[in-house]
Amino acid sequence: MKGLVYGGGGERSWAEVPDVVIRDPRDAVIRIDAVTICGTDLHILAGHVPEVTPGRILGHEAVGTVVETGTAVSGLSAGDRVLASCISACGLCRFCREGRYGQCRGGGGWRLGHDLDGVQAEFARIPFADLSTHRLPRPVTDEAALMLADILPTAYEVGVLNGGVRPGDTVVVVGAGPIGLAAILTAKLFSPAHIVAIDKAESRLQAAKNLGADVTLTPEQVPLGSIRALTGGLGADVVMEAVGLPETFEMCQTLVRPGGRIANIGVHGKPATLHLEHLWTSDVTITTGLVDTSSTPRLLDMLVGGQLDVSSLVTHRFGLGEIMQAYDVFAQPATTGALKVVLTR
Known about the structure:
Its cofactor is Zn(2+). By secondary structure, the protein is an alpha/beta fold.
């Protein structure tokens, strides 16, 4: 079979790799029907995630068909169409029992495309398959389901829920890439008064507007003044960092009101400054987090019920064998306008 192999130092290749096999009774093997590329994959290629070693198959967002299950898998059968979650969950450790699967200490957490081979391949082994996959209702397309593998639960849990978005809030999302757009989409579920999107790329600001942002700004348009004008001079109730750069995290600190919340979603590869010399008197709450995906069943229900429309998040489509080209397109959003790219079998 073939897979997208990380070669270290920014190198990647679509290469022949050993066939996947069941290694644990709780495993399943799935045939990959649709897969996408995440910004985290670009962070890996940039060297920001040193735990990922050369030779690793990348990818943690896929829809597939079950080919084989281990003897301890009870909820899946060959032929089932499933969403493979970006997070694996043992279901037994303290954190899994609390629904905090991202912190699993029983062999789960972020494994696929991290310290286990991932899903950007023709087939993939899914650990803890009963808890780490979701059978898909027939009306849900592969493309729509892919948006629930990572970006929707990440934005919803780490951004919207951690940020405590409430009706009437002013919410600022710094970074209108796929995660930031998913944060806008799911923040709308809580009826904020204003959603402000900040990004350098005009195409992404337009996408943010289409998904529900009522104010869009570039970093050069003095976001602080615009946001204070919306809020009687106070600042935003909730600010979400969805980029992962020191300068965007620092920007968030200038935009939040006293008593407000900063929810960091971005993957940071470098230290960022926390300006406690300004914030220590401000009662500001700062949250961080890795997605748990405990919200995936609820988000899937909302997708089936028509409460979430994710169709505009996909901008480019490729065959699985065109993954090298898809990476090139995804890595240059300013010139290609790429949001999510989908590759199908």
